[in-house]
Specification:
8 helices, 5 strands, Rossmann fold, single chain, ATP-binding, about 40% helix, about 10% strand, alpha/beta
Length: about 200
C-alpha cells in the first residue's frame, strides 16, 4: 500500500493523481498557508477516493522563513527555508501511518528542489537508512525527483479541474501572487496554457 505526503501544492497533487496512493497525509505544522493547503488536499482526496489523514502539530515556534513570518532568513538558501522541515514531516507522517499497511511514503519533490538539502538524492538515501533502522520501515520515495513540475503535470495527465485545487502560496491561505510558490505555480499554468482557467478560479 502506498501513501503520499499531500501538501495541496502542484507537485504533490499531480503525483497523487499520477500514482494513485491509497492514503494521503496532510500536515498543519503551523505554516501560514495551512488552511488553504488542507482544503486543497481534502478536495483532491475526495475526487481521487483517497483516505486522508490530517495531522495538526503547531511547530511554528521552531520555524523559520516566510512560511512562518516575514523575518528574513539570512543563512537560508531561499526565503521559505524551514530547517529540517522534510525530516519533521516524514517523521510525523510515519507516526500516523505506523498502524497502516503502507510500505511506501511518497513525497512530491521535483527537479529544482535540490536548492534545499532535504530535496536532494543524498537526503532521501540518508532518510531511508534512518527509517530502515526503525521498527516500522516503509520506503521514502520521490518518484518525480528528476522531473520538472511541468513535465510531471504533462506525464501524469492530471485534469485541470484537479490541478486547479492546488495552493502553492508560501505566505498566506490566499495566494499572494508574488512569493516563490505563487510565481512557480503561475509559470507552470502559463506553460500548460491554463491561465484562462486560473483567471476564473
Amino acid at each position: 500500500m502506498k501513501a503520499i505526503l499531500l501538501s495541496g501544492g502542484l507537485d504533490s497533487i499531480t503525483l497523487a493523481y499520477w500514482l494513485r496512493p491509497q492514503i494521503a497525509v496532510t500536515i498543519d505544522y503551523g505554516q501560514r498557508p495551512a488552511r488553504a493547503e488542507l482544503t486543497a488536499a481534502a478536495e483532491v482526496c475526495k475526487a481521487l477516493g483517497m483516505q486522508q489523514e490530517v495531522i495538526t502539530v503547531d511547530c511554528s515556534a521552531l520555524g523559520r522563513g516566510s512560511l512562518v513570518d516575514d523575518r528574513p532568513v539570512l543563512d537560508g538558501p531561499s526565503p521559505e527555508w524551514w530547517p529540517f522541515r522534510n525530516q519533521l514531516l516524514i517523521t510525523l507522517a510515519l507516526m500516523r501511518l505506523v498502524n497502516s499497511q503502507a510500505d511506501e511514503l511518497m513525497l512530491g519533490t521535483v527537479a529544482g528542489d535540490e536548492l534545499h538539502a532535504d530535496g536532494t538524492p543524498t537526503f532521501y538515501a540518508s532518510i531511508n537508512q534512518l527509517v530502515a533502522a526503525q521498527e516500522y520501515a516503509p520506503r521514502i520515495t520521490a518518484p518525480a525527483q528528476a522531473m520538472s513540475t511541468e513535465a510531471l503535470v504533462r506525464t501524469s495527465g492530471v485534469p485541470p479541474e484537479i490541478l486547479m485545487w492546488s495552493h502553492s502560496c508560501q505566505v498566506s491561505h490566499l495566494a499572494c501572487g508574488t512569493c516563490r510558490g505563487c510565481v512557480k505555480r503561475l509559470d507552470v499554468l502559463n506553460a500548460l496554457g491554463l491561465m484562462d482557467l486560473q483567471a476564473s478560479r
